[in-house]
Amino acid sequence: MRQVWCGRIEAEYRSAAITQEVVLWLIQIGASPDLIRAGLRIVEDELVHAEMSRDVWAAAGGTGIVPIDRKTLGVTRTHSVLEHDVTDAIVRVYCLGETVAVPLFQNLRRGATVPIAKKAFDRILKDEVRHRDFGWMALAWLLERPDRDLLARIVHDGLPRWLADLERNYGDDLDDGIDTITDDERAWGVAPWREYVDILHRAFVRDYAPRFTQRGITFHIPTRASG
User: Fold this and answer.
1) What is the pLDDT of residues 169-216, one digit of tens each?
2) What is the rounded CA–CA span in Å between residue 20 and residue 40?
3) More confident site: 102 or 1
4) Most buried by CB count within 10 Å: which residue of 19, 79, 110, 176?
5) What single DSSP character describes residue 90?
6) How far is the C-alpha of 80 from the C-alpha of 193, rounded, in Å?
7) How many folded domains does the chain comprise?
8) What is the pTM of this model?
9) Which structural domain range is residue 31 located in?
10) CB contact at 8 A, 225 and 198
């Protein structure tokens, strides 16, 4: 469980760094000030999550310096037009990643009974709802632009690849695939990889499909999720 919480500290720093860069991109394309402020608030949230995760890790016996892969602390541009990179990042990180994070953390919080872990999940879960909403709000703003048809096409074309990435990420879990856990590990907020996969597949149907369809973007539920 120490390894899991160590990984969560790194993940929260990664989220803070990515959001900081996405906010800069939003400023550079002249996004709504309200949207920019919402993004800046997420950066602060992620730093709080990192602090709380570090407290849990220390309570579980973690010591020393938490290793952080600096190569993952940011977003790489892959398009020639910045607005296209913004759309790519908003959908991948927030509409997809933060949306499924809500039921994932709900599941972890449900099993957590260790007070310091439960307290961390209480704060993280409350914030994740707002982070999810930020993504869909940002996508709505993008789809109101004059180039909305092109941006919608970027989302449509990118979804199969981004969903495949989610399958790989959550299929491996945060700890290289935990098959079984003890009651003690569950109490500290650890779950087996199968629960991550099942929650992701339910999100395809319950969260992603209706939200993208509502915004005029065709969403095909992957075969594994629909089966």
Assistant:
1) 875 444 455 667 898 999 999 998 889 999 999 999 999 999 999 999
2) 7
3) 102
4) 19
5) I
6) 37
7) 1
8) 0.92
9) 2-219
10) no
